[in-house]
Amino acid sequence: MKNLIKDILVIQLAKMGDILQTTPLLYRIREKYPEAGLALLVDSTFAEVSSGVQFVDEVIPFDLTSIHCVTNDSKLSLFEKYTYLVEQLAPVRERRFDIIYNINFSKMTAILSQFFRDSMIIGYRLQPKTGAILKTGWAGLIFHLMRYRKMVRFNLADLWASYENGLSKPARRLFYDGNGTGDIQVDLPVDSPGIGLQ
Predict the structure, then answer these.
(1) Where are the alpha helices (DSSP H) in 47-115?
(2) Tell me: the pLDDT tens digits for 12-43?
(3) Radius of gyration (C-alpha) of the chain in whole angstroms
(4) Within 10 A of 70 (CB to CB), how many other CB atoms are there?
């Protein structure tokens, strides 16, 4: 199976702090599929700074602001909105990804994942009949446990890293090389409550 995986896409359309918390997942993907191409789809606002994210071969910008404006425009028909979204996705849709990790719990990214019909979707996707957002089994469990955050010591980095390997220890490191001088690793203390990135 590993030899058949040539291209992988990770969808992370949240803010920069969330992108950094995605790096343990990217590390595990790279470890499992060292020869595969690994692309990261990000909000175009964070495309430049995302170039410092390690393990990724390509950062693909996605103009989330204009898409929100169009999809929320009551003057446009559903068909016009759909056509616009298809046009925005054209550069990505022309690509074939063997695996897509959709780690954003949002209707938009769940719909976006549906455009790649031949790809294996890990993370969130749409239930075809109801349009509800479905979670993979492990993600569903952790999502449920995280309702009781004071009692459970998982954080988003653990949840997202679990999409590749739910049996590994919780993430204790984020990876970023913002200035291109080499590996910069941020070690997280076990009980760290105090790192905040917007």
Answers:
(1) 64-71, 78-93, 107-114
(2) 998 888 888 888 889 889 989 999 999 999 99
(3) 17
(4) 16
